[in-house]
From TrEMBL:
GO terms for biological process: sulfur compound metabolic process. Keywords: Membrane, Signal, Transmembrane, Transmembrane helix. GO terms for molecular function: heme binding; molybdopterin cofactor binding; sulfite oxidase activity. InterPro entries: Ig_E-set, OxRdtase_Mopterin-bd_dom, OxRdtase_Mopterin-bd_sf. Residues 467-477 have a biased composition (Basic and acidic residues). It holds the Pfam family Oxidored_molyb. It comes from Glycomyces paridis. Residues 1-20 form the signal peptide. Residues 224-375 form the Oxidoreductase molybdopterin-binding domain. Residues 467-486 are annotated as: Disordered. The chain crosses the membrane at residues 64-85, 92-110, 116-136, 156-173. This is Molybdopterin-binding oxidoreductase. The keyword Nucleotide-binding does not apply.
Length: 495
């Protein structure tokens, strides 16, 4: 029993050494090339749509953490079992390490941003794991001994060494250098500043401008891509007359514009919070495209991130006069790392997955016929204008409130069409018109409020909005494939 336990620990120690040395090697190659991250990313890409949707819905921003913890737990159990089996037949241990190294290398090589060197960390890890196994499980000198003798002190040393190497690798492949580069950035003053909206002041309402720290985050990146401004290049190519390339200072030296508008995610459910309103600073995308001169028929602007994610935006939308930006700033700061530092795209009126590429490194003119972007390949709509949405932020669902005058308030959005009307009703009665906050244009969300004389009892509140043309539809639709529809409702009790 005790020998089995030691063997299990030895298995875990070998896996830990393999992963730690791989992490250390990945710090030199690219953070995404570490085997667990590469396998995790491959799993994310291969996960069927309904499961991914379920994960985003139930786990929210913790989905990545849960995935990595899951992989970690599987590895822990598998390596313990391997250790036990390897004591009888050491070849089992070598085979599992080879399998793990091969899987890690293969997963790393299939990452869109990978070069041949991305296989190296997994292979180094597997080799170091195998060496550790050979050292820990020596042939027992005196026969007959059932299986090999496991070097117990060696196991502890291996575990400690793996801990140190892993911590060093993790630190080195982290983002602290990008963080300090970001802190050193001084953004120039905008050449053109748009109007600033003013919010309604109702307790519990979503603020008009979303602070960066509260801004929703959605992306496929398990580790934040590390893009330092010093090495930054934005390439514009594909079907254009002039290929262009810009450094980060090139972009900052241009006439920057600052505009407020709302970004929202296609995965947002009815009542969901995957939207934010910010002040974006950047270069008008239309200017860059005009200099590149797209060829006729190049109807899709494909934007690519440092980690190989892609979005496809209609060229016509990018050049129709709206504030489509190659953005460098968000609410007066350089873009936060999570939101695409140093450069991202943002286009008012389209869901993020077809327009808002973070860690932007390439703009390629193509056509919708020739290229499907990341989520389009997975069945989501190729063109995705934002659907009219309205939400009750206060009172909160299932709250007990005091009967009498109660502020019912929230936000509504229909970017680039604009919100014209918001209505609220109680218990499916008459619709009441809400008071709307003044807005600066059609591209930002609009706060609203309505004073409700709440009678004691349980009530259902419902909201709906209208843009310049249509009333928001009551028909419930899930986010897939082009955005959710339906009215948001909350049930509260007044006492
Ligand atoms: N590189 C990259 N950019 C990306 C994504 C991504 O997965 N990778 N996701 C997009 C999606 S689906 C949305 S809704 C927005 C969200 O931007 P935010 O995280 O800054 O709110 O980013 C977009 N840009
Ligand atoms: Mo999204």
């Amino acid at each position: 029993m005790k020998a089995t336990l030691t063997a299990a620990l030895a298995g875990i120690a070998c896996a830990a050494v393999a992963l730690a040395t791989a992490q250390l090697a990945a710090a030199a190659v690219a953070p995404g090339s570490a085997p667990v991250l590469a396998i995790g990313a491959a799993v994310v890409d291969a996960t069927p749509e309904p499961l991914k949707d379920f994960a985003i819905r139930t786990l929210g921003e913790n989905d990545k953490l849960v995935l990595l913890a899951g992989i970690g737990l599987v590895l822990l159990l598998a390596s313990a079992l391997t250790g036990v089996l390897a004591r009888r037949r050491i070849a089992v241990g070598y085979a599992v390490l080879a399998l793990l190294g091969g899987a890690g290398a293969a997963a790393a090589l299939t990452r869109p941003a990978a070069g041949a060197s991305w296989a190296v960390p997994s292979l180094i890890g597997a080799a170091c794991g195998a060496l550790t196994l050979a050292l820990l499980m020596r042939k027992a000198a005196e026969a007959p001994v059932p299986g090999r003798a496991v070097d117990r002190r060696g196991v502890l040393i291996a575990l400690a060494g793996a801990g140190l190497a892993g911590a060093a690798g993790w630190r080195l492949s982290g983002t602290s250098d990008v963080e300090s580069a970001r802190e050193a950035v001084r953004l120039p003053a905008p050449a053109s500043t748009g109007p600033a909206g003013i919010g309604l002041d109702v307790p519990g309402i979503t603020p008009y401008l979303t602070p960066n720290a509260d801004f929703y985050r959605v992306d496929t990146a398990l580790v934040l891509p590390r893009v330092v401004p010093e090495d930054y290049r934005l390439r514009i190519g594909g079907r254009v007359a002039n290929e262009l390339e810009f450094t980060y200072p090139d972009l900052l030296d241009r006439d920057l514009v600052e505009r407020e508008f709302t970004l929202s995610c296609v995965s947002n459910e009815v009542g969901g919070v995957l939207a934010g309103n910010a002040r974006w600073l950047g270069v008008p995308l239309a200017e860059l495209l005009a200099e590149a001169e797209p060829e006729p028929g190049a109807d899709q602007v494909v934007s690519r991130s440092a980690d190989g994610w892609t979005a496809g935006t209609p060229t016509a939308v990018c050049t129709d006069g709206r504030d489509a930006l190659v953005a460098v700033g968000m609410n007066g700061e350089p873009l936060p790392l999570k939101h695409g530092f140093p450069v991202r795209m943002v286009v008012p009126g389209l869901y993020g997955y077809v327009s808002a590429t973070k860690w932007l490194v390439e703009i390629e003119l193509s056509s919708f016929a020739d290229f499907d972007a990341y989520w389009v390949r997975r069945g989501w709509a190729a063109e995705a204008p934002i659907k009219t949405f309205s939400r009750i932020d206060t009172p909160k669902p299932l709250k007990t409130i005091a009967a009498g005058t109660t502020a019912v308030a929230g936000v509504a959005w229909a970017q680039h069409r604009g919100i014209e009307l918001v209505q609220v009703r109680v218990d499916e009665g008459e619709w009441n018109e809400a008071e709307l906050a003044p807005v600066i244009g059609d591209d930002t969300w609009r706060q609203w409020q309505w004073a409700w004389e709440a009678e004691p009892g349980r009530h259902k509140l419902e909201v709906r909005a209208a843009d310049t043309e249509d009333l928001q539809t009551e028909e419930r639709q899930p986010p897939f494939p082009d955005g959710a529809t339906g009215w948001h409702s909350v049930v509260v009790t007044a006492e």
